[in-house]
């Protein structure tokens, strides 16, 4: 062999090895200027436990080149939404890592940035339908290679949620599961089920709503719909336009952050079936008997464990509240207050729990509460963290009215009951609350007898 032939061979082999090991990145179209492209190039990036951080570009027609794509494992698709700036979603790498840490899966990140990044939202919506057909063909090919539709889970964000629904309908509802993270509202609200996500699109459809007043979809779309913090606005997100881009996307994007935490099981977010957020905050929806032994549904990745009971219930609307940051879960207590003032009293209650050098706070101020003589007022207190043991309790009563500084609440008994842990409620008898003055005390175990 001539030297040049040998060198060419060596070079070709090196290129082959390089090609095999090349990590594919998500398309970045963030070029700092308006994107008006019309192409619909869909890239499928495969991640498995063997290549958890290094994406492999998968062929749309031939799987033989991808031995690591093992169809005896379940396959999870992750589909992003509208990308007005064309930049890659910040969470896209994280989600495959976290999913793979939980389960031995094929994770396919669907990179349809070429279709989703467009200054014209309507164009991106149009591309959602086109991309859905393209992905349906890919999944049909997976079936030919032996994949079962039941083992396919689609996690779709915003437009990606409807795209999952469209694919699901193309496949006659046989897909195993669709998780919709704040499904897009604009251009989908008011459309018939065949134009958007609906419960018939998969065997199980779970939906999270975080921005129903702007980018998200208001009505329920799945077997279970979770309305985080009522589904409208999220804590910690800017309330004015002066905060720039975050103002537009913070509520919407929170859906992904909440879901990621549920994959890691940072903490458990219990959701409560209820007809409205107001009713939920009033503490009228804390009963989960309809779910039988399973108890209240847990938001996120693990909701699949409630599948059977949820399918029997047809469609369930649930609520929960969160903290502004991770860990997002809150700790729920019932607070019962009985007063002996002659006249009716109105006001807000702030409760602090102290224990192990930490403090947990619950402010019950979604509306003014009414307190009547010798009548138990039931309040729903949600604390920012869970203290394993409560040593002291602080209470503050306020009215929001500066002209009534002498207003007092003569409390006969307060009782605090942890709603998840079976432990004895904490009580305090006979305490005087002056407006805006915090009173701290050591609670005692409640007496069995009732007044
Ligand atoms: Ca549909
Ligand atoms: Ca909002």
UniProtKB/TrEMBL annotation:
GO terms for cellular component: extracellular space; plasma membrane. Residues 1-20 form the signal peptide. It is found in: Cell membrane; Secreted. It comes from the Eukaryota. Keywords: Calcium, Cell membrane, Disulfide bond, Glycoprotein, Hydrolase, Lipid degradation, Lipid metabolism, Membrane, Metal-binding, Secreted, Signal. Pfam families: Lipase (PF00151). Ca(2+) binds at residues 196, 198, 201. The active site is at 158 (nucleophile), 182 (charge relay system), 252 (charge relay system). It is a peripheral membrane protein. Its main location: membrane. Residues 38-328 form the Lipase domain. One of its GO terms (molecular function) is heparin binding. InterPro entries: AB_hydrolase_fold (IPR029058), Lipase (IPR013818), Lipase_LIPH (IPR016272), Lipase_N (IPR033906), TAG_lipase (IPR000734). GO terms for biological process: lipid catabolic process; phosphatidic acid biosynthetic process. It catalyses: 1-hexadecanoyl-2-(9Z-octadecenoyl)-sn-glycero-3-phosphate + H2O = 2-(9Z-octadecenoyl)-sn-glycero-3-phosphate + hexadecanoate + H(+). PANTHER family: LIPASE, LIPASE MEMBER H. Hydrolyzes specifically phosphatidic acid (PA) to produce 2-acyl lysophosphatidic acid (LPA; a potent bioactive lipid mediator) and fatty acid. Does not hydrolyze other phospholipids, like phosphatidylserine (PS), phosphatidylcholine (PC) and phosphatidylethanolamine (PE) or triacylglycerol (TG). Belongs to the AB hydrolase superfamily. Lipase family. This is Lipase, member Ia.
